[in-house]
Amino acid sequence: MASFAFISFVGLRKSSPEKHHHHSLTTLPKCIAPSQAHYRRLNVVAAKTSPKITGRNLRVAVVGGGPAGGAAAETLAKGGIETFLIERKLDNAKPCGGAIPLCMVGEFELPLDIIDRRVTKMKMISPSNIAVDIGQTLKPHEYIGMVRREVLDAYLRDRAATSGATIINGLFVKMDKPQEKNAPYVLHYNAYNGKTGSTGERMSIEVDAIIGADGANSRVAKSIEAGDYEYGIAFQERVKIPDDKMQYYENVAELYVGNDVSPDFYGWVFPKCDHVAVGTGTVTHKPDIKKFQLATRLRTHDKILGGKIIRVEAHPIPEHPPSKESGGEGSPGRRCGGVCDEMLR
Ligand SMILES: Cc1cc2nc3c(=O)[nH]c(=O)nc-3n(C[C@H](O)[C@H](O)[C@H](O)COP(=O)(O)OP(=O)(O)OC[C@H]3O[C@@H](n4cnc5c(N)ncnc54)[C@H](O)[C@@H]3O)c2cc1C
Fold first, then answer.
1. Could you say which of 3.30.1300.10, 3.40.50.1370, 3.50.50.60, 3.40.50.1100 is the CATH number of the domain covering 2-14+45-344?
2. Please, which pLDDT band fits residue 317 given cuts at 50, 70 and 90?
3. Hey, how many other C-beta atoms are within 10 angstroms of the C-beta on 344?
4. pLDDT per residue over 3-31, tens digit each?
5. Are the beta carbons of 213 and 338 closer than 8 angstroms?
6. How confident is the model at residue 33, as a pLDDT?
7. 253 and 122 Cβ atoms separated by less than 8 Å
8. If you take atom 4 of ligand 1, which residue's CA is the nearest one?
């Protein structure tokens, strides 16, 4: 599991040379708020002709606005499909490490300014705290991108909206399946109420298909009885550390291994724009996650000493796609495994 995760997140796979190289690797990037990110158009990839059903566009609802949902909605909208993207929490930040391989930058056409840091030095640190440099296989143009999920996810959703998708801030509750041929799915959701800051009015929309990208514990998957699947829990603290300590992490990411930090994953310290993210995860020992997090912090010793925790995040994250495919009734399918799944290939 650890090596599996490692390969997927630190991106040690074949990649094509980087085309755009705007910042030098030592440049300290400025912190970009999600809304300030620079968006540019994709050269896409979706069908040129719009699928029509009796004189109208096909309608698809994508439930979940993480990377899988944002990317799916953009592709659908670009293909001329009337697309609704439903996300319960638009400022949601997943505590996944946010390390992305170079291939993802190309495949998702990510602009470089949403990448906080382009790290070339990786250290794997043993249970007895022996550090081994593992970034040496990177070629001169290669790096591991460090993103903040609130920035990446918002960017992908906004790009879907620019392509024509309607973004709905709401909690998907349930769906009514079509009872006769050509009848629509009726999808029920609680719209977010901006005034009270809570879920508000019950709403429904009719669509021809539903894509489940609602992550771990997917309600879409349950609705279509797509089967159970495993999920991981991730815990992460964003820590603002003193400038002299931040200098060490400017171009370094650390992976801590050992049963103290996680029996089946690894602990990490990944540099973000002006702070570091310290986290860990587990699939097999979820109740112990806080203990693993404390151990990860302790393992960093004085490297983050004097730091201030500015944000704490914990979230279940889909680990594998459901084992059973769903024969056309909406598809949590492999995209439910999300970006990670994409990175594994
Ligand atoms: C410990 C750990 C560390 C990881 N580290 C990395 C890493 O460094 N790099 C990396 O690339 N990947 C990492 N991953 C994997 C990565 O987090 C996942 O692959 C990714 O989040 C999956 O994306 P997704 O869009 O499928 O799901 P999610 O990101 O979970 O998105 C699902 C979305 O659906 C929304 N939603 C859920 N239910 C509803 C509902 N009923 N109505 C409306 N909206 C709903 C949620 O709010 C959420 O925004 C890590 C995973 C773990 C467990």
1. 3.50.50.60
2. confident
3. 14
4. 222 223 332 222 333 333 333 333 334 55
5. yes
6. 55
7. yes
8. 96
Is 295 in contact with 257 (CB distance < 8 Å)? no
Q: Count other C-beta atoms under 10 Å from residue 132's C-beta.
A: 11
Q: 234: CA distance to ligand 1 center in Å?
A: 10
What is the DSSP code (8-state) at residue 3? Answer: H
Query: Which DSSP string corresponds to 186-199?
Result: EEEEEEEETTTTEE
Kindly give the distance from the C-alpha atom of residue 25 to the centroid of ligand 1, in angstroms, as a whole number.
Answer: 28
Other CB atoms within a 10 A radius of the CB of residue 20 amount to 9
Pocket of ligand 1 (CB under 6 A): 9, 63-69, 86-89, 92, 94, 96-100, 171-172, 213-215, 219, 232, 234, 265, 281, 317-318, 336, 338-340, 343
Query: CA 238, 240, 244 angle in degrees (round to 5)?
Result: 140
Both tokens assigned to 253: 């990411």
